[in-house]
Design a protein that fits this description.
76% of the residues lie in helices and 1% in strands. The chain is mainly alpha-helical. It folds into two domains: 45 residues, no CATH class; 225 residues, MetI-like fold (Orthogonal Bundle).
Length: 307
């Protein structure tokens, strides 16, 4: 009897010790499990639901069943003129805005890194726009562009120049959106470029200076190649963010005038909520997701090949 009790106790200890050992070995996974489950619930389920909705025609009447249409919603993209307008506007905005943000961000980073390193408060000032909520930025620029009492037209009047409608002009609306976006997100590129410059090795520049290389030559032959990974990350993040622009357009122009600033994110919103066609809106969303993944993959492969 005593031997049996001892055997049972030993088995319990071994079982308990094995469980404790397993928990210790997998502690990191156990601690991450709740976060992973929450992320899966917030990403996997909506993604599956979006795929399911994209192949159905969904009626605004919740009592009517969903009608399976297969690739019908995706086929509509080819013949939808409003989608083509939104796609063109999105491409124009992304190319121009990201290019300006990169050039200005890199230029400011080089300026602060070489000439005014001691004025650290300027870095804080330059990063303020990036830290503001997009809605606040959009409302601020809406007041700046106001035709009657906006500060921009006040400056134009004082300079003797004709006042403009800015966000309400068909020729200036997209330009106004780009200026506001560049103002807000150039600090993001500037911060990444400044961090990249701070991590550059000193020895190659000392050797280049001894060889008589000019500052311009050092920039092309040393700085740009060293910064290539940082530049790739900055451009990739900004392109991905520009493709889903919504706040500025929604508040400043609403997609007008004459659809000159209607971008894909705004069109998805209009299709889903104004035209009550969530199935087609899901198809457009999947198209944007697909384009973003393809561009990101292609861009990263190009950067690896260029190294």
């Amino acid at each position: 009897m005593l031997k049996s009790d001892k055997d049972t106790s030993a088995k319990s200890l071994r079982r308990g010790g094995g469980l404790e050992h397993w928990a210790e070995r997998h502690l990191r996974y156990l601690m991450l499990a709740p976060t992973v489950l929450i992320l899966l619930a917030l990403t996997i389920f909506p993604s599956i639901y979006m795929f399911y909705a994209a192949v159905h025609r969904i009626s605004p009447n919740p009592d009517l069943p969903w009608e399976f249409v297969g690739v019908g919603n995706f086929a509509r993209l080819l013949s939808d003129p409003q989608f083509h307008v939104a796609l063109r506007n999105t491409v124009v905005f992304t190319l121009v805005a990201v290019a300006l943000e990169f050039l200005l961000g890199l230029g400011l980073a080089l300026l602060l890194d070489r000439f005014i390193r001691r004025l650290s408060f300027l870095k804080t000032v330059l990063m303020i726009p990036m830290m503001l909520p997009p809605i606040a930025v959009a409302i601020t620029w809406k007041l700046i562009y106001e035709p009657q009492f906006g500060v921009l037209n006040e400056i134009m009047f004082l300079l003797g120049l004709p006042v403009q409608a800015w966000a309400g002009d068909v020729n200036l609306a997209m330009f106004s959106i780009i200026v506001a976006d560049v103002w807000q997100w150039t600090p993001f590129v500037f911060l990444l470029m400044l961090a990249g410059l701070a991590s550059l090795p000193v020895e190659p520049y000392e050797a280049a200076a001894l060889d008589g290389a000019s500052s311009w030559r050092q920039f092309w032959d040393l700085t740009l190649p060293f910064l290539k990974p940082v530049i790739a990350i900055a451009l990739l993040l900004r392109v991905m963010d520009a493709l889903r622009l919504f706040d500025l357009v929604f508040i400043l122009t609403g997609g007008g005038p004459a659809d000159r600033t209607k971008v894909l994110s705004l069109y998805i919103y209009q299709v889903a909520y104004r035209f009550a066609d969530p199935g087609y809106a899901a198809a457009i969303s999947l198209f944007v997701l697909f384009v973003t993944i393809v561009l990101s993959t292609w861009f990263m492969k190009r950067m690896r090949l260029a190294e």
